[in-house]
Amino acid sequence: MISYDLPRRAVAEALGAGLLVATVVGSGIMAETLTHDTALALLANTLATGAMLVVLITILGPISGAHFNPAVSLVFCLNRSLPPRDLPAYLAAQFAGGIAGTIAAHLMFALPPLEIATKPRAGPAQWFSEIVATFGLVAVILAGLRFERRAVPWLVGLFITAAYWFTASTSFANPAVAVARALTDSFSGIRPADLPGFIVAELLGAFIALALMGWLLRPESIEQSEPLKAEP
After folding, report:
1. Tens of pLDDT along the chain (232 residues)?
2. Which one-letter DSSP state was computed for residue 33?
3. What's the CA gap between 16 and 57, in Å, rounded?
4. What is the DSSP letter of 194?
5. Largest Cα–Cα distance in the chain?
6. Which residues contact 197 (CB under 8 A, 6 or more apart)?
7. 127 φ, ψ to 5°?
8. C-alpha span between 55 and 20 (Å, rounded)
9. CA distance 36 to 128
10. Rounded Cα distance, 155 and 193, in Å
11. Can you state the angle between helices 38-64 and 6-34, rounded to 10 degrees?
12. Residue among 65, 83, 79 at smallest CA distance from 214
């Protein structure tokens, strides 16, 4: 198995988070430009994001694990899949990459590099949606790694595609993406004042998934063949 040093893994995390956010923000801007139909705009945003997740996890997963998400990195640190000493580099890369993704999307559409979002996203329904979305994302990742590792890119992409539509929050499920989306006053934005509620909900959902899936995926016993008994 090929292993990569921490600088390469951190760059892979920054690149993945950046391209993911550029896709979320850029496709939202494009959708707003082309249609005034909110449902159609959300559909365009959804398809672009789900497709990009499949691509990014497939090509960067072998390098860094393709977390692109502080909640996922924290879960992997807690279950000892990611060394604690590597966690700060992963988190810094994810947040920095996400902000760079917003800047890239804005520059592609001739907008100021950064803007302060004004779209309100707050309230119990939004927070509960983020708990559900992040719980589902982490559960899918953990179960996918346990049972069908090669399918994880598709499992994650399809889950987020679905969660865009069955959650009231449109499934941010990622603190780094949430912070980056607070810096765009476009279709995918979120007011900075609403970030704390989203981030707390996302972390809570991730920790619930870790606890439940840690129990659910742990077999109670391993069957062993009975030892042969000598005949009298």
Report:
1. 688 999 999 999 999 999 999 999 999 999 999 999 999 999 999 999 999 999 999 999 999 999 999 999 999 999 999 999 999 999 999 999 999 999 999 999 999 999 999 999 999 999 999 999 999 999 999 999 999 999 999 999 999 999 999 999 999 999 999 999 999 999 999 999 999 999 999 999 999 999 999 999 998 755 544 444 444 4
2. H
3. 8
4. G
5. 88
6. 122, 126, 127
7. -65, -45
8. 10
9. 28
10. 32
11. 170
12. 79
Torsion angles phi and psi, residue 230, rounded to 5: -70, 135
Residue 173, by phi and psi: left (phi above 0), alpha (psi -120 to 50) or beta?
A: left
Q: Cα Rg for the chain, rounded, in angstroms? A: 19
- Write down the residue that tokens 């399918």 correspond to: 151
102 is written with which tokens?
């917003």
Q: Which amino acid is at 52?
A: M
Cβ atoms within 10 Å of 88's Cβ, excluding its own: 11
Q: If DSSP codes are grouped into helix, strand and coil, which group holds residue 216?
A: helix
Scored b (16 or more CB within 10 A) or e, 44-77 reads bbbebbbebbbebbeebbebbbbbbbbbbbbbbb
Q: Of 141, 8, 17, whose CA–CA distance to 62 is shortest?
A: 8
Report H helices in the chain. 6-34, 38-64, 70-78, 87-108, 124-147, 152-166, 175-181, 195-216
Contacts of residue 38, defined as CB under 8 A and 6 or more positions apart, other chains included, come to none
pTM confidence score: 0.93
